[in-house]
Design brief:
14% of the residues lie in helices and 39% in strands. The chain is mainly β.
């Protein structure tokens, strides 16, 4: 009883001195800065017969950068005139030297030192709850110092601990958990309740909302689910806000935090710099005399198998009439030769007779022609493209330098449907797909898929008696995977198309005569060669590579253009002019002309 009364007396004195210790007036009438904790500790250590065994070091910081020395001082005051009262609750105070003229900042969340030596459990709980600012009450079922159902008094345990750099809340929860107690918060009253834990009860579920910074919510939910062992625990994703609702036990919450800290990191980015160099060359050499048009497709026809398109007519004598000794012949028609088809129609060198043709024969030919060539020609082209793109790690980047070619699709008509045509476009050119993946040693794994397409001409096909033409395209492609060091260049070549063509013509026998044979033979040489080189340089983008651009775009004032027409004027307006208001300004126009709107 004396112990309890003594503790109540100490608590009352501590509360009184805490309020009065804000300003301590000295005999000189000057105010000195004494912290409330120092005043409480000093008052408690000056109490008769009290020996301190509780150590609480509160951090003291100031606004300046001067370090404050901390000294642990044990203050024991036992007067010789009064008998000492031996108790288990004693206090060890720590004096903190603070500059008198420097304002003291609020205490930090962590306490540098918490030490209890043979202190009752309820006393330790009371001190830690006061430091944490928690209002609480003990469950009567705890019953320390009271008889239980069997009549035995339940003794209160004492503890001796030393903790450094820990917050009062964490220290209180650890202490309660060690002795089978739990702290239950009451949101209605704001007073917590300390009660005994039920050994058979399942661990309590804690609901938290976790905000993701970089990771995708859908991918993270699958990873978090793997850390949950309790069947009651679950994870709900909110893709709109990139948050997760985690309902799990306290150990599982710690595992979730550890996993998210390792996975929710910014995805690295890779700068893909490419250079596409396409070189094409097609020299042509034509020399000689080409008699192909004369000797290869000479049309020769001999004979007389022509027929009349217009039949010939005989001459008509007419009718003779004599008047006054003058004879006049009327109705006489000369003979018509007719119109002949076939061989004789084209030369048109003979005339027909009324009786037809005899057994004569006629020759018809196309004539002689030759092509003389003595010329060299060349066509060289070099196309260079240097696209640059930034992509996320393990995400594909697509670079395309193409041209759209139309492709016509013709549908033949039937008895019940009408035909028609459609036009679609195909991309022809260079398409490069690159997927980077950054390894742990700053090397970049690349998956490269280039595709080069060129237009090759038209091809004709006859289907159903109709001839259709379709474009032809040449494709060159390959797929490879390589490992490239950071900021190094990968060169890919070998996509070469070399097509030499040689064409020659010769007139037999005449083309073999020395020197004179050059007039009867010709030769055409063509060498078409295309070469494509691809240079790829992947570079890992660092956070320091980004630079903010200073702009005044949002603060700029739009330029006011002169009005070309005034719809409210007497000359340009269509409304009746208001002579009572010379300005005659439309209300909507007044709002537009306000400076705030401009």
């Amino acid at each position: 009883m004396k112990k309890i009364a003594h503790l109540i007396l100490l608590a009352g004195m501590a509360g009184t001195l805490t309020v009065q210790a804000q300003t301590n007036v000295t005999s000189a009438g000057q105010s000195t800065n004494i912290t409330p904790m120092a005043a409480v500790l000093a008052a408690m250590t000056n109490t008769t017969g009290v020996t301190s065994n509780i150590t609480i070091v509160t951090p003291a910081t100031n606004t300046t950068a001067v370090s404050t020395p901390v000294a642990e001082v044990t203050m024991t005051n036992t007067p010789a005139t009064a008998p000492a009262i031996v108790t288990n609750a004693s206090i060890v105070a720590v004096a903190v030297a603070v500059a008198p003229a420097t304002p003291v900042a609020p205490a930090a969340a962590g306490i540098p030192l918490i030490q209890f030596s043979d202190v009752p459990l309820t006393t330790a709980i009371e001190n830690l709850a006061r430091q944490a600012g928690i209002n609480y009450m003990l469950d009567p079922k705890i019953g320390y110092g009271q008889p239980d159902a069997s009549g035995q008094v339940k003794a209160e345990p004492t503890l001796s601990i030393r903790w450094e750099n820990i917050s009062p809340e964490s220290a209180l929860l650890a202490l309660l958990d060690n002795y089978g107690l739990q702290l239950i918060q009451d949101r209605n009253t704001g007073i917590a309740r300390i009660s005994m834990k039920d050994p058979t009860a399942l661990p309590a579920l804690i609901t938290r909302v976790v905000q993701l910074q970089y990771a995708n919510v859908s991918n993270m939910v699958e990873a978090v689910q793997s850390t949950l062992t309790d069947k009651r625990s679950k994870v709900i994703a909110d893709s709109r806000t990139s948050q997760m609702v985690v309902v799990a036990t306290d150990p599982e919450q710690d595992a979730v935090d550890t996993l998210i800290a390792q996975l929710d990191k910014p995805t690295k980015q890779v700068l893909i710099e490419t250079k596409l160099v396409e070189i094409s060359s097609s020299p042509t050499s034509q020399k000689g005399v080409d008699w192909t048009s004369t000797l290869q497709a000479q049309h020769v026809a001999f004979g007389n198998s022509s027929t009349f398109i217009v039949q010939p007519t005989a001459a008509t004598p007419g009718t003779a009439t004599t008047v006054n000794g003058v004879t006049t012949i009327s109705g006489a028609q000369p003979a018509q030769p007719g119109l002949v088809s076939g061989v004789l129609a084209n030369p048109a060198v003979i005339a027909s007779t009324v009786g037809g043709f005899g057994p004569e024969g006629f020759l018809n030919a196309d004539g002689l022609s030759a092509v003389i060539s003595f010329l060299n020609s060349s066509s060289d082209a070099q196309v260079i493209s240097t696209p640059r793109v930034v992509t996320l790690d393990n995400e594909m980047a697509r670079i395309a330098v193409t041209r759209g070619y139309p492709v016509f699709s013709v549908t033949a008509g039937t008895a019940n449907t009408s035909g028609g045509s459609q036009v679609s476009y195909t991309n022809v050119g260079t398409i490069l797909q690159v997927t980077p993946r950054i390894s742990a040693n700053e090397q970049i794994w690349l998956k490269v898929d280039p595709q080069v397409a060129t237009y090759a001409g038209l091809q004709s096909q006859t289907v159903g008696g109709q001839t259709f033409q379709a474009p032809l395209f040449d494709f060159r492609t390959f797929d490879t995977q390589v490992l490239v060091p950071n900021a190094h260049t990968l060169v890919m070549g070998g996509m070469v198309s070399d097509n030499p063509i040689s064409t020659s013509t010769k007139v037999p026998l005449l083309g073999d005569i020395p020197y004179l044979g050059y007039a009867f033979r010709s030769e055409t040489k063509t060498a078409v060669k295309d070469n494509l080189l691809i240079f790829i340089t992947p570079t890992i983008v660092k956070n320091t590579d980004f630079r903010a651009t200073e702009t005044q775009f949002l603060h700029s004032v739009p330029t006011k253009r002169p009005t070309m027409i005034d719809p409210n004027s007497l000359w340009d307006g269509t409304r009746p002019y208001n002579w009572s208001n010379p300005t005659n300004t439309d209300p909507a126009q007044q709002i537009i002309d306000e400076p705030s709107v401009q």
